[in-house]
Amino acid sequence: MELRTELPTMFNDFAEARQQGFLAVKKLKDEGKPIVGVYCTFMPEELTMAAGALQISLCSTSDETIPDAEEVLPRNLCPLIKSSFGFGKTDKCPYFYFSDLIVGESTCDGKKKMYEYMTDFKDLYLMHLPNMRNSPEASGLWKAEMIRFKEKLEDYFGVEVKEEAIREAIVLKNKERQARKDFYGLGKLNPLPIKGSEIFKVMYGANYSFDKPKLIQDLNDMTESILKEYEETPKIKSNKPRILITGSPIGGVTEKVIRAIEENGGEIVAYENCTVAKPIERLVDENNPDVYDALAEKYLDIGCACVSNNQPRIDMLDRMIDEYQVDGVLDMVLQFCTPFSVESLKIKEFCQNEKEVPYLYLETDYSNADVEQINTRVEAFIEMMGG
Hints:
The protein is of the alpha/beta class.
């Protein structure tokens, strides 16, 4: 089967959504819409929505402002942290500029200390994520953090966050998650109906589409359109190695890894990391009578390496390797990202010993200096799988 040469017209809208989002946020800001800026998928968007505010993802995937950040932060620090701080410090991120309140999270020591400096130039609220999961104490702490965040939103924006509004937000956000799952689930098909890089563009762009009902409809329409054409087209299974990407967040400069896979004869069928699947797969329990308990359960289950033990990540990899017919797993880890770097051995052993699929650990940063090295290693990895 030939890859699609003409995608639905709305595909380009997703590809350009981040740039278009700047103007959309300015318009909403001018209309008096409260804006909450976040960096992490642990942040409960349902509470922000119930408060009548817009939650937006902040800039953190470019080396443009890292030199500015290094005037304050140490050089041997995760590039994502330095990029985040640099964009805030220089006001080069329009989303940061328009945010009334920044909500941080204690996902790693570097971020926690960075947020302390960020309070010098922006109103910031910190949510304290438990270090451990699978205990009553951890669940209780995270539930208490949900309630504390709700109270912060009420106090900061002078609103009342009602439980009914939270329930409505949970239902709407679950519909969005399902629409996202259905779209990136196209990667389960063989041959792929669209490239893995195109799936990523849509998922990344969806973070900057702020009209949720329209976003849900657009994703559903695009998925339906692609599947309809797929079913009507004669198909021959692809012999290209099917790759799953896991590890640190990917986007911006690190899309060099996506390009390396596709340019060297592989195809990306799944992204387990938090840019795509990790925060989406599990929905919030709409039948739980306690909305804060329901939110705490869902968000604490996100399989990030910053929380121990990280069985949710193993469980998701287990499912996705099977469902997406994965031939190999590429673990992309940002330089100095200690949680994911340390956890990589466990992921390697799981992939190779339990799932019997090849595994490649790839450490990188936000420069393009290692592009050739990445291409060489990825090319060898794909050749090993017969690509």
